């Protein structure tokens, strides 16, 4: 599966309609973003069960602002619509694979229940 560009209009549906979604916030002028792109694309081929989305922060400035993007590349990961990971800067392929493996293993329902229980205290 290849990476897919998403817009502000597509963002919420993409994140909520898929089990696991990675979102790479990037810009054309960003050197580190360009350097990370092949790693991200290779990851999309290696993990076809994970949506690898890309948001161009220049074209989608409102979305970048809403997501509080202050540095690029920034990678966000969502599981069942909940953000479970956020990292600014490039990730080596082995680290990206490790993050994806951890997200796959994460019991998001248990984590949400635990978080709700902690708020009650």
UniProtKB/TrEMBL annotation:
Cysteines joined through disulfide linkages: 30-33
Isomerase in keyword set: no
GO cellular component entries: cytosol
GO molecular function annotations of the record: protein-disulfide reductase activity
UniProt cross-references to Pfam families, sorted A to Z: Thioredoxin
SUPFAM superfamilies documented for this protein: Thioredoxin-like
Site keyed Deprotonates C-terminal active site Cys: positions: 24
Function of the molecule: Participates in various redox reactions through the reversible oxidation of its active center dithiol to a disulfide and catalyzes dithiol-disulfide exchange reactions.
Protein name: Thioredoxin
